[in-house]
């Protein structure tokens, strides 16, 4: 570490430049970055994590907007690698809020002494592969540089915020922000006229919370979403003891399900039981907290077809029941996409917000936003005067955060150029021509920590394999990559997530290629595939 390298200056004289050297550089100190650091250090690698933020936590550092919380059960989301940590940490709520989640990740960073290898406020602006020396050179915005054999991108799948290209934003006299860059000092919304653009999982959480304090709220909705009650509650002492005693079973259950959530589908078809039995199950699960309503329901509720539409109508009617004004209710009822084809937000009092006198729902599909004016938002048919505009407009998912890193592989090729028509990887992890680069963020989806831990374990094992067998490089072969890209397209075409225009397929970003950005396979299938690849001497990878 901290080796000096001799270089020739522009004037032709020798100069000595200090360049930190590591076995591995991790970009990002969120949930996957922290665990990668812990695991690699334990395996004897010298590691440095560069984190853009002023603190650790990634998603849970940046997303400070009111209402931000888990919608998977807190005790299924925490790390499983340390029994001591599991027993020490008390989750306070079944669906824990952002401040608590950030506190948890800071606790982990302190407990495992991770901070000494994390450099905060360190935005990576480029990463270039040096072919002669088989090492990555990473450049930070502040001029600092470092090199390593391995490079791990743990920059999240939803971290490059998307701001629509509205004209006039600079002319706006009030305050504005994107939810993913909520100011650390908070935003004073009390008594203000606030506009929220976007009604995805973020908008739905935010709107329900800020409607309690603003003077007036205008919600600009382009597409109505299927949402369901979260039904959060505090964890009492007895439940806390039960949770702590049953972590092995909780995690075992998670590892058996497609999305690594704790809920197991009912193997029956919704259409093979009587209408009464079907409705009884819909209603019973509706009264339960979290994702159980669909992930523990009849399995075909989440497959395109009759059961899916039957359940969609059940949910539509639930929305209609909660909104007093039938015209507003119909605006909130989704009719243009299948249930489950977009990420399903869980909410706490979201629909009731539209029964408040000081809340206005604006349909920006019918009359699109034309521009931001000094006074507020101008749509095709009106101008809405606002003090604050909040953009809950989502993310340039998966590839957006990678593109920002400006990664150059063999022959100077950039990952951004290579991914123009969608990601080209093998299992999401590795891309041909980019040796020793592991795009962990592009391969992890579902109940995030459950999916990330085994993935990080697999990547660290692969790095040990390279080290122990005296190789210097590992990267996907072009053949394995081509086969994987074809598989994503073919298998992806059959799943619900590719049927709607959402971030899952890049359709939320104008001009972005429409390709499934995540694996089409379930978590157990992905893990089995990776295990087999490793057992076969890293089949599909080029080891040099
Ligand atoms: P999103 O689902 O992509 O929603 C973005 C919203 O902005 C949509 O309503 C979209 O409308 C709207 N929008 C975008 N451009 C617009 C424009 N030009 N004019 C009007 N409206 C526009 O983003 P998100 O809500 O941030 O959620 C992203 C993902 O983050 C979620 O799917 C989820 O995976 C994750 N998330 C998780 C949690 C949690 O775990 N608790 C919470 C929040 C988010 P259209 O639908 O018409 O495009």
Q: How confident is the prediction overall: mean pLDDT?
A: 95
Biggest sheet layout: 8 strands, mixed
| Annotation field: number of helices | 17
Share of residues in helices: 25-40%
N/C terminus separation: 24 Å
Kindly state the number of beta strands.
22
The global form is globular
Work out the strand percent. Answer: 15-25%
C-alpha Rg (nearest Å): 24 Å
Poorly predicted ranges: 1-15
Question: How is this structure best described in words?
Answer:
The protein has 17 helices and 22 strands. The model is unreliable at 1-15 (pLDDT under 50). The protein starts with a strand and ends with a strand. The protein is α/β, with parallel strands linked by helices.
What order do the helices and strands come in, and which of them pair?
Blueprint: E1 4-8, E2 14-18, E3 20-27, H1 31-42, E4 47-50, H2 59-62, H3 74-77, H4 83-88, H5 98-111, E5 118-119, E6 124-130, E7 135-140, E8 145-153, E9 175-178, E10 193-197, H6 201-210, E11 216-221, E12 228-229, H7 237-245, H8 247-256, H9 275-286, H10 292-295, H11 306-322, H12 326-332, E13 346-347, E14 359-363, E15 369-372, E16 376-379, E17 383-385, E18 388-391, H13 399-403, E19 407-408, H14 415-418, E20 437-438, H15 448-468, E21 474-476, H16 478-492, H17 523-535, E22 541-543
Parallel strand pairs: 3-4, 3-8, 4-5, 6-19, 8-20, 9-18, 10-11, 10-18, 11-14, 12-13
Antiparallel strand pairs: 1-2, 6-7, 7-8, 15-16, 16-17, 21-22
Helix pairs in contact: 1-15, 11-12, 15-17
Bound molecules: NADP nicotinamide-adenine-dinucleotide phosphate (NAP).
NADP nicotinamide-adenine-dinucleotide phosphate is lined by residues 69-71, 158, 164, 197-203, 205, 220, 222-223, 343, 364, 369, 392-395, 503, 508.
